[in-house]
Batch of 4 targets.
Target 1
Amino acid sequence: MLKLSMKALVCAVSLSVAGVLHAADSESTAPISIKFAHVVADNTPKGQGALLFKKLAEERLPGRVKVEVYPNSSLFGDGKEMEALLLGDVQLLAPSLAKFEHYAKPLQIFDLPFLFDNMEAVDRFQGSEQGKALLTSMEGKGITGLAYWHNGLKQLSANKAMREPKDARGLKFRVQASAVLDEQFKVLRAAPRKMSFAEVYQGLQTGVVNGTENTWSNYFSQKVHEVQPFFTASDHGLIDYMVITNTKFWNGLPDDVRSELQKIMVEVTAEVNRQADDLNKEARASIVKAGTSEIIELTPQEREQWREAMRPVWKKFEKDIGADLIKAAEASNQAQ
């Protein structure tokens, strides 16, 4: 009986070990799951970029990587996505640059109003030594920046025509959770209201806020033109994104996988940034065609009035951001 029992035990242990090895083998061959969450629609620069990243990653790393894309705050909204990244519940995000002030103060530079004259200046700064250094400025807090993705320059919208800075007085503007953007509207004697992107349409429709700021592609994709009768073509600020990942997750990837994903990110970034301008032009044309809103074009003199009205914001945040960094960004307006 003892011999039979020992034989049965050895058999059972062998089967158990085989099962563990099989499970370990299955685990090692399972694809790496990458959840890419964002808060905008698929037909925006960010939305298109996320889908292209998924396509190329799964094509070039077949069976090794699986990318799931969650648009329109369908996985995590504005208020929860950063926490989710740090907890490992999502692996890739592309938040607006306005979302990073609590992680690295110098990144507030991208919210300063009227800092960049055009997107070419933005490209020059982001591609500079100072711009690239900002991508790694949050690694001490567990966040690695992989790329800058363009959305475009911001325009103002409101339930009344705004041609001069004084026209904004007393209005309630939706803003992202950013101290710089708060101050931007306070210097105009307007009232900033923090609100998640997913709530903007309803907030404008119900009068919780009277206006906002965004790019043409975001306005059109969220149908803001249906609830805002006036847009001011101000090009006053930047909405760009930083594609970020959890530092521990990224550094823990197999070297060859990480290297290939980096190459894909470079390729996708070039395509996103190429498409962004076209998408904004198309969106603006679609808003005009809809006929629901008037677009107010500013003269150079009128735009300068807005610029001067908002310049005190630069001074207020100069210490946090760094005077040298602001000078470098301003210098990018001059083509080399």
Target 2
Amino acid sequence: MSKKFKACIIGAGAGGLSMARALKRHGIDYDHFERHDDVGGVWDQNNPGSAMYDSAHMISSKTMSGFLGFPMPDDYPDYPGHKRILAYLKSFADACDLKDNIRFSTEITSTIKTDDGWEVTLSDGSSHQYDAVIAATGLAWHPRMAEYPGEFDGEIVHSSKFRNGDMFRGKRVMVIGAGNSGVDIAAEAARSADAAFLSMRRAYHFIPKHVFGMPADVFAVTGSLLPMFMQQWSLALVLRLINGDVTRHGLRKPDHLPLNSHPIVNSQALHHMAHGDLVPKVDVERFDGKEVVFKDGSREAVDLIVMATGYRHKLPFVDEKIIDPTLDHPDLFMRTILRNEPTFASIGFIEINGGVYRFYDEFADIVANFYSEIKDGNQATVDQFENIVKSGKFDVSGAVNYVDSPRHKVYANVLASARQVKKLRKKMGWKSLRDADLAVG
């Protein structure tokens, strides 16, 4: 027997738009809130708190990155920049007729679990009751700053404050952290600063954006039928053939196989290292006035430090009884559904080694299927799914021994995620998604 059911979506970036399409497709009533005045989330530089810098591009290719049924335009380059991604997200919202249901310039201040569902309070002070809540606010909003002994006499900023290389001119600059944004910023410093250094805690594999003329993630698909350890060894061999021995640039030899950490997809950093414009350094030991002392005993005088040290995985508007604010990350089934309260989900609270939008679609559809079962009164199926959510099964990390770092606590492997989604759909009797079923525009 069907019953009344209404969901609340928080955030109108890529994850929120994917979730809205899924709920709309399943005929589930929802309200959608966005604190900014337009869609796009972190890709909109005008969105307060966005960490988007002028030269930012996707690290997954357009071929692998589009929403299901809505590929990126043919005239987009292999790796679109942030302006094109923002335009793509806006066109997706328009094509799916999602904007009319979004209440813009409205922030969520709290979500409290009640006996009747969820009480959601808005920035205007009003409260509303919902049967389910989906947080689609993403990861890159709460900067994480590293701490080191000593005092530094220069300037320290988080990478979220970086916009372009103008801030580096006439300065000696050090970037701490070798995520993709950190390496991008270090490459900018190599072009603009008087001297540029990149400090890394560990050694990494640098994956070029093109492998044998193909976008790296498209090339990776060609080996996707191999067991994971063979994929990793094959990729290690390919990288050796393309990059050579990276220790000649002053880099350390990686102590892990490719894919054991989030891939650094960058073709510029090694170029600048080879030309002496970017100097790799080991981890920082301490600050000493204008100088930075490194763990190998070397030191460099610098004027500006950019901390590309990631973000804290926080959902500050969620009831502290539901998600412990002292934890670095909530416990989410398939990186999506809160295990202890399955009517709470988060689309976009994930790191993945490939194009993520199609997985937003997959996970959003799983959530929408679950809500449909609740709405239709299929209690046995609801109980079955909730037991699965709480069981700890359906691991999306894959057979990969990830390095121990905060970002890998919310990490997922593309191939493992695809397999687990297929397995879950079969177990629950939920129809698989196809591009043809979701085609729009």
Target 3
Amino acid sequence: MLYPTCAGWTEYLVRTLTEDDVKVTIDPKRVIRAIEEAFRDRYPTTLIPVRMQMDLAQGVFLVMPCYDRGGRELGIKLATVSQGSSHPEEKVHATYLLLDLETGAPKLVISARYLTDVRTAATSAVATKFLAREDVRVLGIFGTGRQARAHLQVLPLVRQFERFLVSGSDPGRSQAFAAQMARELDAPVQAVSSKTCAAESDVLCTCTTSKTPLFDGNLLRLGTHLNLVGAFQPQAREVDDVTVERSRISVDTYEGALAEAGDIIIPLNHGLITRTHILSDLHELVSGKKRVRTSPGDLSLFKSVGCALEDLVTAELLAG
């Protein structure tokens, strides 16, 4: 492939990885470990601008650059989240570019839908490792799409769950999804109502496109840990004020959460919580600088809007 330079045109060899290549190559255990290590050790030397969001006719276009000055790596993810597609498998399209530092030319191009699935679930797994009780047994998932599947597959790598609950907006789809996941996990997966999912889960992951709360926060048992994944715009939220007020909160990054996380921004704007209600970011959590869960009865909440460092370190693993 040719790229222009000041002196003319230079040819670069660009590797490409398809979705099938990524699925064959990626190891969720390694991704969990890499994301934990990156937020602990590399985060302070990394430039991570708040991602650009551009509204499209039928969705949102996202641009997520990341430059690790310490590791000398540069990358960018381009993603489109469609609001028009009725099929959950087609809502997200993404491409990751690992770039040459001197020229900015791509040296690795990755089809990044599955990369995004795994790195998001792996980040939730890191938060779960540090925030959830050791004795959790029930994993609850709101949603029936790609992220719901990834969280069901990846979170059991950090906790020993015995029972799995799923709750979607369509009962028929929820039943089919639960049956499919039961076969994939070789474990009991049950489609349940939103009330049951909220009330009976020890770890609860919200992986939906909902813009309004999915359940009544009063239903949550003491000691529950929540990973909030789906909402990434200031006006959208998956949990209510009660949930946020009851919880001890950690976020992936302060900048991203305060710019994009409606789950946090809306109660902040209503004066129901203050900035001090957010107790840590992921760097402070995994490095031990801040402590979020202080007792078994605490409700802990991790709000993820997606951080470009997660994509960069996952792309590095795929680069070999």
Target 4
Amino acid sequence: MVDRTRSRAESAVRLALRRGRVVLLAGPRQSGKTTLARTFVRPGQPTYFDLEHPADLVRLAEPMTALAGLRGLIVIDEVQRRPDLFPVLRVLADRRPSRARFLVLGSASGDLLRQSSESLAGRLEVVELGGFTLDEVGPAVAERLWRRGGFPRAFLARSEADCCSWREQFIRTFLERDVPQLGGPSDPTTLLRFWSMVAHYHGQVWNHAEPARSLGVSQPTIRRYLDLLTSVFMVRQLQPWHQNLAKRQVKSPKVYLRDTGLLHQLLGIRTQADLLRHPKLGASWEGFVVDLLIHQLRPDEMYFWGTHQGAELDLLCFHRGRRYGFEIKRADAPTLAPSMRIAMKDLRLHRLNVVYPGVARYRLAERIVAVPFDDLASTSWSALDA
């Protein structure tokens, strides 16, 4: 299973390297980026640089001198620690004839992507690597993937206790080491409290005011905290879709923790029994499915939609000019709801798919179909139209 996961990601990186000279492999810490990069270039080789290793930082003290004479594939890990490298990479990537390609790894998306896109416009391809996903591990262990999350060491832990211990250590290290390096608060307790608040908002429309009051900080500070967690792949802000309709529409984002294992750790969920009786059960499953759909389908654009009159749509995806809707229902046999008809009409959906944890695919109305969760492991846009 692990080999298959790595082979899928490896193929994506190889394809990107064939197309361009600089590839950014982006994703959270401990998601397997370094392991994957080491299948291309082994540590200790002159073309491998780990920017958390003091010796490699010294080697790159004069980056143009250090990199200009190298040939083949050059790997630079934790590149967000040296954003000044991007202009150097632009110069080296533009050399004719081309002497090298660059695989750079980063675990902070916001500033990193902005800096890289400014310096490497037209030269960079981004491959995002998260944790394990359903198509990689298979539907047979979907419950385990949902409960433990996709981080390899959490998912593959020998016991639930080992899984929880790893997640606890991950959260502590992230708050004490990574966050201050990225310009976040130096007091880990503050961000832990905030992160726990976001966990309780999981699957809901975000409101800056309530966390600001609870923490005794300003709303701009709360926005900065949320953007920080988003930039390091911990949180997904799903933006609202709104257009000129005769309805008042929700205009604040929904928030999801991107890894359900970390969500469960922050909510105090340790076992399957804890999960099944927790009040955030439905929201947890919704976020799990939303993340899988986005990973599997890679839509051109993605939103949620809601009105103040109560109509809503969990996920609105744009693909080749068509609008696809997704409702996520943790029910034995979902039925047609008025909100679904409203979404079909008001959003002019090409198709509305209702994802549920059953086994049968069936029609609820014209162009509204109930889709079993297990089908997501191999779903595609053409399969959704079938």
